[in-house]
Amino acid sequence: MPATEPDRTTLQPGPGGPGTPSPWAPAGPVASLVTETGLVTIVEGSSFCVSGRSGDILADLPHGLFVLDTRCLSRWELTVDGHPLEPLTVASDAPFEATFVGRVHPGRQQADSELLVFRRRHVGHGMRERLTIHNFGTNPARIEVAIELDSDFADVFEVKESRVCRRESYSITCTPTEWRSVLEAEGLTKAVALHLSRAATTEPGRLSWALDIPARGQSELCLELDLAVGDHLIEPRFRCGQPDEHAEPTRRHTAWRAGTPVLETDHPALGQAVTRAIEDLGALRIFDPEHPELPVIAAGAPWFMTLFGRDSLITGWMALLFEPSLALGVLQTLARLQGTRVDDATEEEPGRILHEVRFEKAASLALGGGATYYGTADATALFVMLAGELRRWGVATDVIDGLVPHLDHALAWIEGWGDRDGDGYVEYQRRNPSGLVNQGWKDSWDGVSHADGRIADPPIALCEVQGYVYAAYRARAHLAAEVGDLATAELYDSKATTLKEAFNRDFWLDDRGWFAIGLDAAKEPIDALSSNIGHCLWTGIVDEDKAAQVADHLLSPEMFTGWGIRTLASSMARYNPISYHNGSVWPHDTAICAAGLMRYGFVDHATTVIEALLEVAHLLGGRLPELFAGLDRRDLSVPAAYPTSCSPQAWAAASPLLLLRTMLRLDPSAHRQQVNLAPTMPQGMTRLELHGVHVGDRTLDIRWERGELTVDGLGSLDLLATPRPPVHDS
Hints:
It is a single chain. The protein has 15 helices and 36 strands. The protein is an alpha+beta fold. The longest helix is centred in the C-terminal third of the chain and has 21 residues. The two termini are 20 Å apart.
């Protein structure tokens, strides 16, 4: 449809008209950093700090300051006159900083303390903490401030899994202005140094200062910690005596906030969730010092602050509506680290896209310098799939063209190493006995099982992986068609059609009305009912005559909790609502299911799921966790937390952005100069404005109010009032 006036198109009311007034309270400020477990996590790149709400890092809990996957501080406890502080509040204006406010223990015969302590902590390749002690009394105060501290150099997973072993090969030295801990192990030296702005009485595990604070006055201390690996100093982002506004994390985060689209809506839960999503995705970005122009996404805080192929690719896809540069950085970085050889230890294979990068034995923050593991069945297809989608958005087309050789190497892996027995399906079976048993997104040891509870035997061909491969074939055909390579386009269209026919024959359980979660080593269907089938809707591999049954199963009482879609149906033998992958709810998984439901035209199903997940976000202060318990809403009126859930976690953080795109039913096709846009909004919303959406060289402002849609900035783009057909993608 051509624009009815310059750069503007208006469509009359359709699906998603005005509803009842919003049931949610007005959106407030960005959510607190304090989780339900009382932990406070602050993050900058691959550095993060986990503490209690007082700011203390306790030695017997999974707390710590981590840089390069190494715990640089395992203890950091502040006392005044021998007493810990009484925590009052925690405040934060950016993901990499927090201010802990605590009251000093009252003196004898005092009802209230007159001393208040502010602990202003900044994380970035180390840590800086500024202590300000305020005396609100009318008399001077003489106090002793002490910090009990230690550095155990534990690996991040040793801490997460509570299996830290005391290392005997490290030493501690002290001077009045520096505390230093050094570890020598496996031919590598790591040194943690704490620099003090004021001379202290120092011991191996304790620092103390005798301070005189005038009446109505204050006293300050600044402590700065850095890490060196070998001869390489990890340069701290924040230093004592330097203004915060000039620090690189501050400048980057300010630019990030200014550069993302702006959402305005009268649906507070959506507005709050999107605001939190933008904040968290900005915090989870990693900048490789060797390629600072290519930001990538860490999987999640606190335990996965590194590049994961699958997580970063899916997060990049979800964030396309708001920031395509994330997807671009992920693609270019993964292409640079793409497998080139056969290595059983790392499971590297030519063309394969990595699973994760780890820094523990690295000497720098360069992604190429870390230990890389390739044991994943799905990242390679998702890599091709995302490249095709990014091209649809018309972003950096020259860069995408330059990635085509990497895409073809990935497709060669899919049809070679990935298809172990030549049956046309990508399977996985670990090559390293210490590698991942399951290599799809449900990668826990028991994440793939039959309906009767038997663990599936590898090699396993997962249903959603075949969907990703189908979408990868469609993406490659699309890229070829754009440059006039019709032979390649026809080849991959044919591959996609063949795969789809085989999949709907071999994976469909006609007596159950759903797709098997996979095929096992004997090529027998793994017949459990799982959320994986929703990913198949998302990719378009499902035949339309089967889609309605899939949609109904996803919204059945066995699968839909009222808060989200369970990973495994409650009728399955291994169902456990508080397990990691066998009945819990993962927001990204639920959001992908909603997108798949909407793609096939099940608007009511999709809207029900979207509204449920947005209400979860609202109840949790705007931030969706990595996962939560799969308990039914009828049994519990609030979503129950999963104890070790990451928060923020990348694809959970990006889920509200995919929900918004699903609600808008927005699908660009830049090469055709078209934008498909057919909003269908949740109950209670009457207005939505989204300013600054990039499609090709155009910047769109989208306004929807009481069913009427207006889009500014289209230029030569045609606006189509129907959603993109579900299966004809090229």
